[in-house]
Amino acid sequence: MLESTTIVVALGGNAILQPGHKGTFDEQNDAVKKTCVELAELVEHGNHLVVTHGNGPQIGNMLIRHEMASAVVPPMPLDVCSAESQGQIGYMIQRNLKNELLQRSLDRDVSTLVTQVIVDQDDPAFRNPTKPIGTFFSEQEARRAMATKGERWIEDSGRGWRKVVPSPDPLSIVEKQAIRGLLAAGNLVIAAGGGGIPVIQMPDGRLRGVEAVIDKDLAAQRLAVEVRAHVLMILTDVHKVSLHFHTPQQRDLDLVTSSEARRYIAAGHFPPGSMLPKMLAAVRFVENGGDFSVICFLEEAIEALEGKAGTRIVNGCMNLPSTGL
Known about the structure:
By secondary structure, the protein is an alpha/beta fold. It has one domain: 3-Layer(aba) Sandwich (Carbamate kinase), CATH 3.40.1160. The protein is built from nine helices and 17 strands. The strands form four sheets. An eight-stranded mixed sheet has the order 3-9-2-1-12-16-17-15, sandwiched between helices. The longest helix has 26 residues, at 78-103.
């Protein structure tokens, strides 16, 4: 068991909103409450946590509300929506985690920090937006938005048309010193929710928000490096990372080196919208000095820390069994 370890925990969407739910506050709060039981167990074992999370459904709902009410209330830009979702989700985690800690007689403060993440204004993602956001619309509505607002929309898997925005690489966490200070004071910290608020740093140092969405797992990796965490833990809805997923040749991975992981990535084993950013984040973290990354099922976090569950990624070039690639 790891003791007094600093862990950045990246929560998957199922930790906040279960599939099939409408997204009411009570539904989200119930899901967060169950998640906080697992987080509190990590704290009870002596670990220091920085928690980050996704915000896709919440942002989508905000955009719907803004569109429907646009004739009455001016809609807010995407970076402001990201800040709003950090407060909303952070509040739910902060309150439920504090309550769960009190149940265990653990007196720890929990703080949510609205977090900005610096991106490069010359990132290729700004020339090729690919991240779908919001709900589905008809082709006619999408083409009207493209013509009148200059937005980019795509047809998404036969389900309708969705707006797409850039997804640039995270370069640095603006509030990293504040997060380090909170950790040093014994706080549990919730930060960089939804990948953080993407901002560009001007030559004079000023920050400007941009319409983009940073991948939450890549932001978690950058956060973990900059707060000097020992472990990056990505909690998801699968028990292990797999090769040949959902085929007769499926093989679950227990221990993977960074060099092996990069070979699997290059071979196209991981879907871009799900496991690919998780594996890339895990590899980047260990290659930048982290002890190890682990991708695991939410309810198996403690077992994964002990090496008894999940997929562990370490830096190096171990000789692993051939995969036939």
